[in-house]
Amino acid sequence: METNNTQFDPVKYKTTTREQWQEAANAWYRWSNTLHQWLGPSTDRMLELADISKGNHVLDIAAGAGEQSIATAKKVGISGYVLATDISPNILEYAKKMVSENGLNNVETRVMDGENLELDDASFDAVISRVGLIYFPNQQKALKEILRVLKPGGKVAVIVYSTPEKNKFFSIPVSIIRNRAKLPPPLLGQPGPFSLGSEGVIEKAFSDAGFINVRSELVDSPLHLSSAAECVQFEKESFGALHQMLSSLSDTEKESVWLEIENELKSFESDNRFIGPCEMIVAMGEKKMNY
User: Fold this and answer.
1) Which residues make Cβ contacts (< 8 Å) with residue 265, sequence separation at least 6?
2) In the 8-state DSSP scheme, what is residue 183?
3) Half-sphere exposure (CA, 13 Å, Cβ side) for 179?
């Protein structure tokens, strides 16, 4: 996807993104049970669409704290192998910790930029990425790198957010922050949470990169928490993109913004619980056998 580099600096964006995940690493690990409940169904579908099976070698890009890497490792078994990569060394330390806690010996972690995979051609049976591709400055470059490292006939499957209207637990905070920080709307092709969510966009991205048999599915993924306040805590601690958007505001202004977000999110509270609307897209593509 093309980016207007006169207004958007992909190098600076990537550096800032890495710093955010360095800081949010511990929180992403601490909230792993919430992540499992929230993203479990879409993760299961991602692994199914990627045809993950015993003995497979699987690459996990933007693996984070590795919750989905562990699910994959259990599917491929002791004869399989999972390489969990991320741009943040800190978050991969928590992935290692989770691997150890699960007693697994078939997962390796490696710091790596998903747009520049330091891996051999045709070396993986499948590639997965959970809520990672949306934040890549050059999504086409990342997809072409995935295509390169896949074996012929291998599959990629990813999870991304659909549209803002279907993800109000996240789009409401984004909208409030954008308004309060006086940020312009994102440029066409600029990375961000909803950059691949509009109808047909991710399918076109996969096809443009050279994948065949491209398909996608919508997965209802409500976020269940105890209250709007807990949702704000979760997003405040774990969602680095929001902090990047808030960076121009003073601490006092930031606290005011979080209070406004909490008040707006209270509309999703009822019966002493919070259900945040969320819809994910699970998309897959395949590498030609004769590529």
Assistant:
1) 169, 172, 173, 228, 231, 232, 274, 276
2) P
3) 11
Which tokens sit at 167? 């993800």
- State pLDDT tens for residues 17-34: 888 888 888 988 999 999
Task: Please state the three-class secondary structure of 212-238 as a single string.
Answer: EEEEEEEEECCEEECCHHHHHHHHHHH
Residue 255 neighbours by CB under 8 Å, 6+ apart: none
Q: Which has the closest alpha carbon to 65: 17, 109, 19, 116?
A: 109
| CA pair distance 204, 6, nearest whole angstrom | 25
> Span 69-80, mean pLDDT?
97
Q: Where are the beta strands (DSSP E) in 81-177?
A: 81-86, 107-111, 124-130, 150-161
Q: Cα(171)–Cα(177) distance, rounded to whole angstroms?
A: 10
User: E-assigned strands of 5-102?
Assistant: 57-60, 81-86
* Pairing, β 124-130 against β 150-161: parallel
Residue 1 has pLDDT above 50, yes or no: no
Q: Comparing 188 with 150, which gets the higher pLDDT?
A: 150
Q: Which of 53, 48, 52, 95 has its CA nearest to residue 70?
A: 95
Distance CA 130, CA 128 (A): 7
Q: List b or e across 248-281, with b for residues whose CB sees 16 or more CB atoms inside 10 angstroms.
A: ebeeeebeebbebbbebbeebbeeeebebbbbbb
Q: Measured between alpha carbons, how far is 108 from 17 in angstroms, rounded to an integer?
A: 23
Q: What is d(CA 133, CA 48) in angstroms, rounded to the nearest whole number?
A: 19
Q: Kindly state the tokens that stand for 70.
A: 């562990």
Residue whose entry in the numeric block shows the structure tokens 């949306």: 134
